[in-house]
Amino acid sequence: QVQLVESGGGLVQAGDSLRLSCAASGRTLSSLTMGWFRQPPGKERELIARISWNGARIYYADSVKGRFTISRDNAKNMVYLQMSGLEPEDTAVYSCAAAPFLDARLSKHFQSWGQGAQVTVSS
Predict the structure, then answer these.
(1) What is the C-alpha to C-alpha distance for residues 114 and 60, in angstroms, rounded to an integer?
(2) CB 98 within 8 A of CB 33
């Protein structure tokens, strides 16, 4: 199993940008689909971005499309989520996760999870 650790969360103002990083250890990420989930207060966790092992296929939820960018660096065993135009509605705990197949979209499809990073956007 791969161990994942997120970093880069924090408190920002509406309109600001923030980059989350996900560092992996224990095995290489190069064969895994990676996803970013978020869970707003009182709401269910949702997949907001997903990237295939080679970066060729990327998915974004409508709520973040055009504002967030997922990327990966397999050589560094890292995955990133660049967030721009942040809104108070983006306030959530953000988690990265790894899945063994391409079209993973549900939480149960992802086998490894980070501990989560809090992102708070003030208006």
Answers:
(1) 19
(2) yes
CA 65 to chain centre: 13
Given a cut of 90, whether residue 115 has pLDDT beyond it is yes
Say which DSSP state 103 is in: T
Quickly list DSSP for 24-76.
Answer: EESS-STTSEEEEEEE-TTS--EEEEEE-TTSS-EEE-TTTTTTEEEEEETTT
Residue in 42, 40, 17, 20 with CA at minimum distance from that of residue 93: 40
* β-strand pairing of 3-7 with 46-51: unpaired
Q: Say yes or no to pLDDT of 1 above 90.
A: no
Angle of CA points 35, 84, 96, to nearest 5°: 20
